[in-house]
């Protein structure tokens, strides 16, 4: 006899997959109580952020409703304290019982967004029109923020990510909320596993020193290191093993770099934006790296040092450089991997790098698991591309970029993809000056008939396609054979 209800574990996994694919979960709340119990913890993990397109935004209307809900979860003494200070909650707030323990589901505490939300709630609930009442209005916002923070710190059983900034602790009138001194803050700090901090030099060192005394288990740091913060450096030193590191800066901080040396064996993820904020020597010691992302200006000696290092476990290499891209040295780094590479993205300036054919062949030789590719290419590299695709049968997405100033023969390029790509290929993009004949695109599109899902084609071409080719691609797009983006 078929069951009419899914087990909660199965239902929860389905909903997790839906959220990963950006399927809105709100409507699922109203299916039945069992669905509601599964959905609520998911949508309350980080309630003050909402995905819109490819980004995350703060929505004022949504935040107003969230604060209204959180006030129902406040203990009676907090509600009385708010009332005594002129913060009037809804008339039934003292008697109403929240359906769920919402604070217990929140995983990320970002006081700055919480501050914005409480301001929005006060502004709408207790409008202020008289100029002389501005200070009193700000005081009410400050008090409400403090009580909500105390609630989340006390009841946030799953809180593990802490986003800390200068504006997280300073209010309109300059008043500060010392988060590390709030009730139950020490217990909260012990469970932090991820810390995000912009401009840590603007945050009192006492906050970082308190964290250093409370927790040794922070595994992920996302920080700006433009200036030195002794408290932050002490916090880094006291951790047992940092695994993920995201750095933004415009210079190397020698003290911070020295503190990181104790964690080189545990680090598996490093992302640097701006100028490399970690020394090449320290980076070369991170032999267990799985992800390396470098965006910005990289010192000349960095690649020289890195090619003598080894990254056998590297799965993702993503590089966007403002200075010259040395493909010969990058090729040697790829050759030290042991076949685990799945993502390789190389972005560069306005020139065409040399040794593209050597790089492409090395990928075919050493990266059999590659899934996502963005690489430079020239017209003479079509045979190497064919070799790569014949060896790497898991490629789902490939972006080929050339900045060569003369139009190159693109027919061989398209033919190499058509003849050698596996059925796993779902998207490819060609960027640069290429010229094609209609016949080669007709051949490519006709071969897509057996594919279960249409392949996405993107041509970012400085040489305009002929009207005949454009019409041909659009016709095949309408037929569902391909998905064409001009």
CATH topology of one domain: Leucine-rich repeat, LRR (right-handed beta-alpha superhelix)
| Beta-strand proportion | 15-25%
CATH architecture of one domain: Alpha-Beta Horseshoe
Strands of the widest sheet, in order across it, are 3-4-5-6-7-8-9-10-11-12-13-15-17-18
Oligomer: single chain
Number of strands: 18
State the CATH class of one domain: Alpha Beta
Describe this structure in words.
The protein has 486 residues and is of the alpha/beta class. Among the domains are: 8-43, no CATH class; 351-486, Leucine-rich repeat, LRR (right-handed beta-alpha superhelix) (Alpha-Beta Horseshoe). It is built from 19 helices and 18 strands. The longest helix is centred in the first third of the chain and has 22 residues, at 134-155. The mean pLDDT is 85.
